[in-house]
Design a protein that fits this description.
Blueprint: E1 3-4, E2 7-11, E3 15-20, E4 27-34, E5 41-45, E6 51-54, E7 70-73, E8 76-79, H1 82-90, E9 96-100, H2 113-122, E10 124-130, E11 133-136, E12 140-144, E13 147-152, E14 157-165, E15 169-176, H3 179-186, E16 192-194, H4 195-203, E17 216-219, E18 222-223, H5 234-247, E19 254-261, H6 265-277, E20 281-284, E21 287-288, H7 294-298
Helix pairs in contact: 1-5, 5-6
The protein binds zinc ion.
Zinc ion binds next to α1 and α5.
Length: about 300
């Protein structure tokens, strides 16, 4: 098969993003540095003497990764990594070092848009080694209760996502990763929660940094803060944002066609572990050129 090699990419310069953590509510400053080839995405806890945590599914803290994805390695934890990882996927950034002032990424406006804007402003450089890319090798279904993910081989990243909360909030959306579509259709979608859960979550020490500015809040009568909403079906678009970020924990971008029903962080990362343990991913270094490949488009993206 003819193809083209995509080289690894990193930032041209360091960017700083500051705010508060969604769940712990603590001030959070992320200083995101360019990194050499084959670094991948590595978090550094500045407040713990520089302990490192690699963005890989083997470091997912499964007991804690319910409302956000939590990584733990070297006795250090990093919470709410998924929006940064989604932005990295959306811009085909392979290598970066994310220095953090505390235990959680800043939530910013609850979407991936601030990351995208900061990365584009900093600039992106192509490096000297080919990018790693992981492809789904054969059809697979992963089902637990009413949660489902079905995957099959594809030359690009495609996902159809369906959500159904209480039969009331029912949305679906299909997305194919290309440079324009991520920024326009997925990146601006904010995280969300249910008003009925807020008190429970805060009593359990979660969502302490949540607000009407950084999360869509759904109440009995519908959305409580429509002024924060970008898309009518923003909830399912945010699920796709999260899914892209969680899948980046394979250690490299994945291509395949996915159908996800009622997923969440824990289910996404369990599925990814399943793909790895069952050898359902293979590394490819040539991006097919015979169609409108998302990775091919990325070659012209800065
Ligand atoms: Zn999210």
């Amino acid at each position: 098969m003819s193809g083209t090699v995509r080289n690894q990419r990193t930032l041209k310069q360091t960017v700083v993003l500051e705010g508060i953590g969604l769940h712990q509510g603590l001030p959070a400053k992320a200083t995101i540095h360019p990194a050499p080839v084959n670094t991948g995405i590595v978090f550094v806890r500045e407040d713990l003497g520089g302990k490192t945590v690699r963005a890989h599914v083997e470091n997912v803290s499964s007991s804690k990764s319910v409302l956000s994805t939590v990584l733990a390695e070297n006795n250090a934890e990093i919470q709410t990594v998924e929006h940064l990882l989604s932005a990295a996927t959306g811009l085909y950034l392979d290598n970066m070092i994310v220095s953090l002032s505390g235990p959680e990424m800043p939530i910013l406006d609850g979407s991936a848009l601030n990351f995208i804007q900061a990365f584009r402003k900093a600039g992106i450089v192509e490096q000297t080694s080919p990018a790693r890319l992981l492809a789904i090798t054969r059809p697979v279904s992963f089902v637990h209760g009413n949660k489902e993910i079905h995957a099959e081989p594809s030359s690009q990243f495609e996902v159809h996502y369906e959500i159904d909360f209480f039969g009331k909030l029912v949305q679906d959306f299909s997305f194919r990763l290309t440079k324009h579509r991520f920024q326009q259709e997925i990146a601006p979608s904010k995280t969300f929660c249910f008003a009925s859960d807020v008190e429970k979550m805060q009593a359990a020490g979660m969502a302490k940094g949540g607000s009407f500015q950084n999360a869509l809040v759904y109440g009995d009568q519908g959305l409580l803060n429509p002024e924060a909403q970008t898309f009518e079906n923003e909830f399912v678009r945010h699920k796709i944002l999260d899914f892209l970020g969680d899948m980046r924990l394979a250690g490299a971008p994945i291509i395949g066609k996915f159908t996800v029903k009622r997923g969440g962080h824990a289910f996404h990362t369990k599925f990814l572990s399943h793909l790895l343990s069952e050898n359902l991913l293979e590394e490819i270094d040539h991006v097919p050129v015979y169609q409108d490949s998302s990775m091919e488009l990325a070659l012209h993206w800065a």
